[in-house]
Amino acid sequence: MPRPKTLPDRDVLEAALRIIHERGPEALTFASLATACGLSPATLVQRFGGKDELKRAALLHAWDGLDDKTARLAGTVAKTPDGAVQMLVGLSGDYGGIEAYAEGLLVLREDLRDPALRARGAAWKEALTGALEACFSATPHAPPGIGLLMASQWQGSLLWWGFDPRGRLDDFVEDGLRRFVEAVVMEGARHD
User: Fold this and answer.
1) What is the torsional sign of CA 161, 166, 169, 172?
2) In this prediction, what percent of the chain has a pLDDT beyond 70?
3) What is the mean pLDDT of the chain?
4) How far does Cα 95 stand from its chain's mean position?
5) In a 10 Å sphere around its CB, with 0-12 CB exposed, 13-18 middle and 19+ buried, how is residue 190 labelled?
6) N or C: which end of the chain has fewer CB within 10 A?
7) Tens digits of per-residue pLDDT, 2-14?
C-alpha cells in the first residue's frame, strides 16, 4: 500500500499522542510516527522541525483537546456543587486504568519541563478553577477559592487512586469529591 501524500496535522498529532500515551514520550520519533501515520519521516521533519518541536506540537494539541473538553463540560453541567463534581468526574474518564494513568504522569513530566506547555497548564488551571467557582456562585458558605481547593482535591484523589487502584477511578473520584463538598461547604452551613 502506498504512503499517503498528505494528512492533516490534526491526524498526525493524534497519532503522535497515541504513541506518547501507549509507549511514553521518548518513544515518539519521526520513524515511529511515520509508521503510525503513513507519512515519510522526511515529510514529518519538514512539517515539525526537530523531535522537541514535534513533541511540543503533540502536547499542545492535547492541551487544546483538554481545553475544549473542559469548556464543553463547564457549559453543560448545572451551576451547583453537584455540577462541579460531575465536571471533574467527566474529566477523570480520560485516564483509563492504572497503566494509562502511570504513562500520563510521564506526559505531565514533559508539560512541567517545557515553558510553553507549563503556561498552557497554568491557563487551564485558571479556566478550570473559574468554571468550578461558577458552580458554587449561588452556594452560601462556599469558601473563597473553592475552585482551586476542589481542583486540588480532585488531583489528589487521582494520585491516591493510582497507589491503590482498586475499583473504578471515576467512582473513587466522585466519592472523594462528594465528601469534600460535604465537609467544606455543607459543614460551614451547619455552623451558622
Assistant:
1) negative
2) 92
3) 91
4) 8
5) exposed
6) N
7) 455 689 999 999 9
Rounded Cα distance, 141 and 111, in Å: 35
C-alpha distance from residue 178 to each of 1, 74, 173 (Å): 53, 18, 9
d(CA 155, CA 146): 14
> Which tens digit of pLDDT belongs to each residue from 75-110?
999 999 999 999 999 999 766 678 878 878 888 999
User: Residue 26 half-sphere exposure, CB side, CA atoms within 13 Å?
Assistant: 2
- Helix %, strand %, coil % for the chain, to 5? 80, 0, 20
Residue with cell 469529591: 177
Structure letter (DSSP) for residue 50: S
- Burial state string for 15-41 with b = 16 or more CB within 10 A and e = fewer than 16: bbbebbbeeebeebebeebbebbbbee
pLDDT tens digit sequence for 21-65? 888 899 999 999 999 999 999 999 999 999 999 999 999 999 999
Rounded-to-integer distance, Cα 192 and Cα 186, Å: 11
CA 173/CA 46 separation, integer angstroms: 43
Tell me what the mean pLDDT of segment 117-132 comes to: 98
Please report the sign of the dihedral spanned by the C-alpha atoms of residue 181, residue 79, residue 86, residue 92: negative
